[in-house]
Amino acid sequence: MRCRTRLFPAILIVSVLLAFSSAESADKFKLKPDARGKNCLNCHVMFKDKLNNPYIHTPVKTGDCTGCHNPHTAAHEKFLSAGIKDICLKCHTKLLPEKAVSTHKPVAEGECMKCHDPHSEKNKFNLKKPGNALCFECHKEMGDLVSKVKFKHSPVEKGCTNCHSPHASTASVKQLKDQVPGLCLKCHDAKKAVFQNMHMGYPVAGSQCTSCHNPHGSDQRGLLYNRVHSPFAKKMCKECHSQPSSPEPLKLQKTGFELCQKCHSPKINEFFSKNRVHWALLDKKGCLNCHNPHASNQEGLLKKPMMIICGQCHTDTVEKIKKAESKHPPVQEGNCTACHSPHSSDQLSLLGEASVIDVCGQCHDWKQHSMHPIGPKFTDKRNRNLTVTCLSCHRPHGTEYKRMMFFPNSTDTCTDCHEQLKR
User: How far apart are alpha carbons 160 and 184 in whole angstroms?
Assistant: First the structure.
């Protein structure tokens, strides 16, 4: 009992001391007035000038630096309290719609600061550059096109965001605010006489406008793509389509290659004189599988760049090409017809020359490259049904090894046939 009585004053003294220490400690770590903003600027003086810009990010304006930054330590660069995308979406909750059809690449990758300054800027929405100048920093080819074309599309000149959403779209690909033709018809009234006269009375309001017109600009009137099919340029629509007053005015008069044979008869006869004909020429669409009958930016009126056109059917080949470390230069340039005939050939794989050696010989002198015998007189030791050609050692599109070889070094390549020389 005595011990407990004596301990009581001691416990009381320790409790008082701890309380005093705790109060003193809390006072020490208490934030100073305006610490979230003004105190930061005592050291980060370079941001004081930012406060003079007309557009200031709300957390900066309210002095809430810790809204984005951790003042002590962080796992992210610049002491950010989380990843950039997560920080931005914390406030900008409606920026990324749930069912987006297309999303701008910087947004998808969380690179918000590629376009926006997180503190302040001279441009609306804290954009680093005004208007199209910002878009053309990445889309340089588009910027060059828009600046050089003879006929410019008004909405493009006023700003890319007239047609594109800068973040994501729930309506269409390429962040378009609406699908084509709906997007185009917001400005172009298909009911007006001038619109109907320009299209020779054909009901094109439901058609894909961008199959004929370049929405960004062109050197051709009416924003037609720069390469225009002759009958289309001359408004000879009735050569291929039914009369505009008929029940099905847009219906083609014939199907497949027969539609084109009327004008291109010598060419088509030449195609069919070969032993092997590209199947795309033989189905119901015929030439229209690959070519645009009206206008195009591509040579030969191709619908899209050659590699994309070929890749629509030859998916496995294109996927292998993408993964290859060493690629054949024509493949890198997307020039499939450097080696293949796109319509027909007497050779396997629709090669454009009589043999693989002849195809390769257009660019390469194999005698200077190697003294290894090749040609029809020399049988491949791995397969008696094959002769030795360039493809005995090289894959024509590309491989994961140098010089498009099948193996990582020349020794493995040689001993694949000459097994007796393996060491």
Answer: 14
